[in-house]
């Protein structure tokens, strides 16, 4: 796992949207098609139509650009999962199942598939960022848990459950990719996990 690097400079985030999207697209393509050890800054600047000096104005180094890209992909994946869960507010796991089914339809040429593929190969997406208790995302998450009548005692547990659920989703997608499963096999395996989460796996005796 790479050492932590600073986020891109504020200059990068202040770029015109079209230029930033171009750089984002090049980073995705380069990191998807090659191992980071084979990615060259020269290729990124050439394909992004920026100078080498501009690259180092935006990022400290190649690893910084990679860490930024993985964090960005993770956020986009999380956002997509939230979208599907929100469509099924009273059936939490159905929303995730629909997200997985949606993912299974992507081809390797699609950007979302490339993001998933990169994130399943990286440990960086598991890093827990500090999230304020009053953030809109946490409020939305707590509302979803309440609507589904989950037993969550405090915000800290809610955040831990959030990362646990994301880990379950990414684990399912990792298995889907590694084993070249069909969509049906992906959903069947995910339903096993849901049953384990809901009901556990140990048979309960009346005397217990």
List key phrases describing it.
disordered N terminus, 10 helices, 2 domains, globular, 208 residues, mainly alpha, HTH_TetR, 66% helix, Arc Repressor Mutant, subunit A, DNA-binding
Distance between the termini: 44 Å
- Strand runs, count: 0
Mean pLDDT: 88
Largest β-sheet summary: none
Fold and architecture overview:
- With 208 residues, this protein is mainly alpha-helical.
- The protein folds into 2 domains: 1-59, Arc Repressor Mutant, subunit A (Orthogonal Bundle); 71-197.
- The protein contains 10 helices and no strands.
- It has helices at residues 10-13, 17-33, 41-48, 52-58, 62-87, 92-104, 111-120, 136-147, 155-178, 183-199.
- Helix 2 packs across helix 7 (111-120), helix 8 crosses helix 9 (155-178) and helix 9 (155-178) packs antiparallel against helix 10 (183-199).
- The protein starts with 9 loop residues before the first helix and ends in a 9-residue tail after the last helix.
The gist of it:
This is HTH tetR-type domain-containing protein. One of its GO terms (molecular function) is DNA binding. It is built from ten helices and no strands.
